[in-house]
Predict the 3D structure of the following.
Amino acid sequence: MKKLILFLIILGSIQSINSQQNAIKKDSIELQADHFLGVDSFDAIYYSKENIFYKKWGNQEWQFGDFILGKLTSVSILNPLKILLFYENSNTIVIVDKYLTEIDRINFNTISEFKNTSHISAANDDTVWIFDNNTQQLEVFDTSSKKTIIATQPINQLPIKQTSNFNYCWLLTPNTISQFNIYGSILYKTENTGYQDIKIMNDDLILLKEGNLYHLFTDTGAIEKIKLPEITVKQFYVTHEILYIYHQSKIYSFDLTSPKK
């Protein structure tokens, strides 16, 4: 197992950007928002404005806000029936349903296993991925029992970004990009050469660097620049091989379907 992990880490460090991937424009939608937060599998749009979280689906709109919690730091819409809202200033997760009605609230200051949480994202069932700054560990945390199930070995740098699906979690630190499974084992590790944000697309990653997007093929370590119109990317989201970019009050969507390398 150790040899396999070492091989994957070495493989992941072999990066090359020698080609471009064409993104086919699909549509654009007007949206007035401070932060575009994503589109779910039902085509509902999520965003925030003046620290209020919104869901817009067709002609319907819902909202959630609690100014006592401070600034809304991040949102995970991986499961649109259990959306995670993270407020770093108050060290709190709020879980809301598809109508943005509160289901549960976890204040990491008051639970028996205190956490100084900087990043959260969805995992399986009633669990979430959290990064604890005190221990510098990525953890699988059970929201029902309020206990940590699994924790990784300490990570020597604090993450810039964290993203996940139901089985894997990716951490972007100033020096590395790493993938972990739900057992806390590292599966993949490669150098971060200046990337600022990451999103999962199938088993691969979409990376943001200096206003441009890149596709990292994790099986080969190859990187392709995604060819886009004259758009400087700041806020983006990926789901089902559709890339969404928020630019000048519009959400642009692009098809990223391409042959696997």
